[in-house]
Design a protein that fits this description.
2 strands; mainly alpha; 169 residues
């Protein structure tokens, strides 16, 4: 009986290590996404000139294209419109197109309206009144979200079942 507890503890450790690795990878990908895309989207939203906004939005869009984050969904079980990557990316491309228009003949009011529209496209108000970027959830792990979800489920169940006998006593 004592030997079986040792075996179960080994299984628990073998299930815990991949779970921690999956969370670490997603955390690192989140940091990379924030540095290469979300940061530029935030800068574009708060830019004071169309040129500066366009420069930052172009950086973010280039990262999304290079990372193949231009279509699909970030959902696994229940589809939500807010997690439609294709729609979000098309919205960003349209905002980029509008910023590239000839601005020399625009009045200051028209230029300001373009920047306000961009900000409304990129940001929304959070529950506590702060601004948040509009983007699909778990976008930093796209297109691998389903793989991460199912691997976490499998290793989580294995971990739970291997620890269950220890919880009974």
């Amino acid at each position: 009986m004592k030997n079986s507890y040792g075996c179960l503890a080994s299984v628990a450790i073998l299930a815990l290590v991949p779970l921690l690795a999956l969370w670490a990878v997603q955390g690192i990908w989140g940091l990379v996404f924030n540095m290469n895309c979300a940061g530029y989207l935030s800068r574009a939203a708060t830019a004071t000139s169309i040129e500066l906004a366009e420069e930052n939005l172009t950086q973010a869009v280039a990262y999304l294209e290079a990372s193949n984050m231009t279509s699909g969904h970030t959902w696994v079980v229940i589809p939500k419109p807010t997690d439609d990557v294709g729609y979000w990316f098309k919205n960003l491309k349209e905002a980029q197109r509008q910023l590239k228009q000839d601005t020399k003949n625009m009045t200051e009011l028209e230029r300001s309206n373009v920047l306000m529209k961009l900000r409304e496209t990129l940001e929304t108000r959070g529950n506590n009144g702060s601004t948040e970027l509009v983007m699909p959830s778990m976008i930093s792990s796209h297109p691998y979200v389903p793989i991460f979800f199912w691997l976490k489920c499998v290793f989580g169940v294995i971990l739970f079942l291997s620890l269950a006998p220890f919880m009974v006593k």
